[in-house]
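Please fill in the sequence for the structure shown.

STRUCTURE ENCODING:
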């Protein structure tokens, strides 16, 4: 049996990959680990206590805020503020970026962007949900409050990114730019343990993840790709299969392990798609590229997009390289204008 390596040990061990690391990023990652444990505990008893259902408040996205959304948002913000490594946070649950006012935080050099609980509408039906986070070095002067520019950096400037998937088991998967590693939570010892070292997405796969209920509103190229998957039996005679949970982190995690593509295109009703660039598409794009896959908006590499607004949306195509090449062939052959 291989020796038990905990997330904490791994973070410190990998800290030495960064010769100038002073332990601040390690401390920041440890605060995310703590918040993930707290949120995991609440999700695992969601059916038993009055914490599911809606707060009756809509978030900035106009989506009904679930109680666990608000709980997760507060716990991650508190954990990040407490460790003095972060000067501000952008959250899906907050209209504006949160500036931490303590002096220690003002002197911090990182900002964090997050979706504290993605897919939360699935909680009441016991479907996996997730937290998505990304970390940037601030560009504004240390000692001053963070500015919009700190949060509107392109994805290729990310220092670290990851997600927590609260599923049949709870896992934390992250990258600091040196590959992707997955840690499974062992509740009996309250510890995330290394279970998936150096994760890579298969170059090919058979799984396509898309909400086909939007089919008539998709661009022509997306429609053609869906038909290709349904009608084309590859040489290995293993047909494509449609898998869509309605929870980005869960769909992404399965595709990362088995190979596949996740597509959330623009539609006639949502010309920019639904997913948010800063705290959903960018972190997932960083992870998939570190795992050997690709992520675009249908034309441009997600990590090269220049953000303009905190909550802006972009179309997302992400997954196995060979499958992404086929997707792009259809998108190029049938330009966006053909719905
Ligand atoms: P639809 C959840 O709201 C989310 O942001 C992702 O987690 C998920 O993949 C997608 O939206 C589901 O959207 O329109 O298919 O219900």
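FILLED IN BY: designer on duty
SEQUENCE:
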């Amino acid at each position: 049996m291989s020796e038990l390596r905990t997330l904490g040990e791994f973070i410190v061990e990998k800290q030495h990959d960064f010769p100038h690391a002073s332990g601040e990023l390690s401390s920041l990652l440890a605060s995310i680990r703590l918040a993930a444990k707290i949120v995991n505990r609440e999700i695992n008893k969601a059916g038993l206590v009055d914490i599911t259902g809606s707060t009756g408040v809509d978030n900035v996205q106009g989506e009904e805020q679930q109680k666990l959304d608000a709980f997760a948002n507060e716990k991650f913000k508190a954990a990040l503020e407490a460790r003095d490594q972060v000067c501000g946070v952008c959250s899906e649950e907050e209209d504006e970026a949160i500036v931490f006012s303590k002096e220690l935080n003002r002197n911090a050099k990182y900002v964090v962007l997050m979706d504290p609980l993605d897919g939360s509408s699935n909680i009441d039906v016991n479907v996996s949900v997730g937290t998505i986070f990304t970390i940037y070095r601030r560009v504004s002067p240390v000692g001053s409050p963070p500015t919009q520019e700190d949060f509107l950096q392109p994805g290729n400037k990310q220092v670290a990114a990851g997600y927590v998937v609260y599923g049949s088991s709870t896992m934390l998967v992250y990258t600091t730019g040196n590959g992707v590693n997955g840690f499974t939570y062992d509740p009996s010892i309250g510890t995330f343990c290394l279970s998936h070292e150096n994760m890579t997405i298969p170059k090919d796969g058979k799984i396509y993840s898309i909400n086909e209920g939007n089919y008539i509103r998709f661009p022509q190229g997306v429609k053609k790709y869906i038909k290709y998957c349904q009608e084309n039996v590859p040489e290995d005679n293993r047909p494509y299969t449609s898998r869509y949970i309605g929870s980005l982190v869960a769909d992404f995690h399965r595709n990362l392990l088995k190979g596949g593509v996740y597509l959330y295109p623009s539609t006639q009703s949502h010309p920019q798609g639904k997913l948010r660039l800063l705290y959903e598409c960018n972190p997932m794009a960083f992870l998939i590229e570190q795992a050997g896959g690709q992520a675009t908006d249908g034309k441009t590499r997600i990590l090269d997009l220049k953000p303009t607004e905190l909550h802006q949306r972009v179309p997302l195509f992400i997954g196995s390289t060979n499958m992404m090449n086929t997707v792009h062939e259809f998108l190029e052959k049938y330009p966006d204008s053909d719905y």
